[in-house]
Amino acid sequence: QVQLVESGGGLVQAGGSLRLSCAASRRTFSSYVMGWFRQAPGKEREFVGAISWSDGTTYYADSVKGRITISRDNAKNTVYLQMNSLKPEDTAVYYCAQGRGCSRYTCHRLGEYDYWGQGTQVTVSS
């Protein structure tokens, strides 16, 4: 069993920045990608971005492209989500997830991921 623990959420003013972390207890041989998703109250969980463990290839949702950067530290089994120029509509619970691999056509699908963290709340005030 893989455990994912997100941290770094909090309250920030619009225009501010946050960096979320996701620490994985371990990576299985079939774990090739880490994704970030978010879910606002009353809305479906949506894809934010993803990164390949092996070569660091990243995929970003159009809604956040240009404002976020996903990076990884393989030695620490940790992935980061740097968010800048935050907007009130970025308010959500942010989840990380670990999967077997995906492409830019499939990384947005929840079913591509096997393990999920418990989420961390991000609140952006106007």
Compact summary:
By secondary structure, the protein is mainly beta. Helix content is 0%, strand content 49%.
Characteristics:
126 residues, mainly beta, seven-stranded mixed β-sheet, four-stranded antiparallel β-sheet, 0% helix, 49% strand, globular
SSE layout and pairings?
Elements: E1 4-7, E2 10-13, E3 18-24, E4 33-39, E5 46-52, E6 58-60, E7 68-73, E8 78-83, E9 92-99, E10 113-116, E11 120-125
Parallel strand pairs: 2-11
Antiparallel strand pairs: 1-3, 3-8, 4-5, 4-9, 5-6, 7-8, 9-10, 9-11
Describe this structure in words.
By secondary structure, the chain is mostly beta strands. It is built from no helices and eleven strands. It has strands spanning 4-7, 10-13, 18-24, 33-39, 46-52, 58-60, 68-73, 78-83, 92-99, 113-116, 120-125. Strands 2, 4, 5, 6, 9, 10 and 11 form a seven-stranded mixed sheet that branches. The protein has a four-stranded antiparallel sheet with strand order 1-3-8-7, with no helix packed on it. A hairpin with a 4-residue loop joins β7 and β8. It is globular, with a radius of gyration of 13 Å.
Reading the helices and strands in chain order gives EEEEEEEEEEE
Q: Return Rg in Å.
A: 13 Å
Number of helices: 0
Q: How much helix, percentage-wise, in residues?
A: under 10%
Instruction: Indicate the mean pLDDT.
Output: 93
Sheet having the most strands: 7 strands, mixed
- The shape is globular
Which regions are unreliable across 5 or more consecutive residues at pLDDT < 50?
A: none
Calculate the terminal CA-CA distance, rounded to whole Å.
40 Å
**DSSP strand tally:** 11
